[in-house]
UniProtKB/TrEMBL annotation:
Gene name tied to this protein: moeB_2
Highest rank taxon of the organism: Bacteria
Species this chain originates from: Lignipirellula cremea
Gene Ontology molecular-function annotations: molybdopterin-synthase adenylyltransferase activity; sulfotransferase activity; thiosulfate-cyanide sulfurtransferase activity; ubiquitin-like modifier activating enzyme activity
InterPro entries cross-referenced by the UniProt entry: ThiF/MoeB/HesA, ThiF_NAD_FAD-bd, Ubiquitin-activating_enz
One cellular component term from this protein's GO annotations in UniProt: cytosol
Domain THIF-type NAD/FAD binding fold: 14-235
Name of the featured protein: Molybdopterin-synthase adenylyltransferase
Any single Pfam family the record assigns to this protein: ThiF
Enzyme class: transferase
Length: 236
């Protein structure tokens, strides 16, 4: 991306997140000059993409295939009943654009294959991985490793969610945790509130990394058991 300077309008827009304990002006500037890939953008990726767009990441690239169906609407915050039965990515991208005119949003109407994931990674500063299948998650992990990018992996089941944040110096990424892809449950149960919570935390870690502010939870797994009300954090 071309190095761009914050305008006066943007400084006003982001005034509430600049100052002590949040972002510096330089940190906000770094966000503007960053690009992030989020895939997919359903229950977790949607809130993550929303928060990154609202925070002022300069380019947000989303990827999500298929059409919106009614069971998606307990958790997919970028969709609505008005677009049921229609392709998700174009509507999701348009909604994100409506939130912040200062952010460039690209929508890919499918999940990227190996070559496409590598090409997208080469255009980004960070990847937020939110797919349900381990095949997709491991593909994104490899693309991030090849491009030497920070990698954030978010997962959910029921009322429980997990978040892993990988530093580029530590490789391999997901293969260290999942040497073999576990069994996948196609229609796993999930409550939308845990999806949104984990997606927002993924965005927070991305904002810290891209802005250079705060302490990311590098090489840690954060697990929130919402059913029991317990939080654990372990070293990967």
């Amino acid at each position: 991306m071309t190095d761009l300077t914050l305008t006066a309008e943007e400084r006003e827009r982001y005034a509430r997140q600049m100052g002590p304990g949040v972002l510096s002006l330089a940190g906000q500037q770094r966000l503007k000059n960053s690009a992030a890939l989020i895939t997919r953008v359903g229950g977790m990726g949607g809130p993550a993409a929303q928060m990154l767009t609202m925070a002022g990441v300069g380019r947000v690239i989303i990827a999500h295939g298929g059409e919106l169906i009614s069971p998606d609407l307990n958790r997919q915050v970028l969709g609505s009943e008005a677009v049921l039965g229609e392709p998700r990515a174009p509507h999701f991208a348009q909604y994100l654009r409506s939130l912040n005119r200062f952010v460039e949003v690209e929508g890919l109407p499918r999940e990227p294959d190996d070559a496409e994931a590598a090409a997208l990674a080469a255009r980004c500063n960070l990847i937020v991985s939110c797919p349900p299948t381990f095949t997709e998650r491991l593909r994104l992990s490899r693309a991030a490793e090849q491009a030497n990018l920070p990698f954030i992996d978010a997962a959910q089941w029921g009322m429980t969610g997990s978040l892993m944040v990988f530093h580029p110096d530590k490789k391999p990424y997901l293969e260290r945790v999942y040497p073999e892809p576990p069994e996948f449950e196609e229609l796993f149960p999930v409550v939308g509130a845990i999806s949104a919570a984990i997606g927002a935390l993924a965005a927070l870690e991305a904002i810290k990394i891209l802005s250079g502010e705060g302490k990311p939870i590098w090489n840690q797994m954060l697990i929130y058991d919402g059913f029991q009300g317990r939080v654990n954090q372990v070293e990967i």
